[in-house]
Amino acid sequence: EIEELIDECMWTMTTQNGMNGFLVVGPSGKSIFLPAVGYRRDTDLVDRGSYGDYWSATLNEFESYGAFGLGFDSSGSYWDYRYFGRTVRPVTE
Question: If pLDDT is split at 50, 70 and 90, which confidence band does 45 have?
Fold first, then answer.
């Protein structure tokens, strides 16, 4: 799903309910809002409102980080390593 979000969707920076983030619209017209909630490094909250990074279940067998994540900021969206304190966004079918 992350590959589809990066390669096939339109990303628009916006604010919803007072939170900065991105409205991501897919080819079907369906959308999801991903808040730019930043991330935790030790006890610090870093880049809240300008950066987002979400956990994935895609394993990276070649790096010690263990898995990948979806990262995004004003420069775009990209695959990122899953480390530090990243966000989990529950989704229902």
Answer: confident
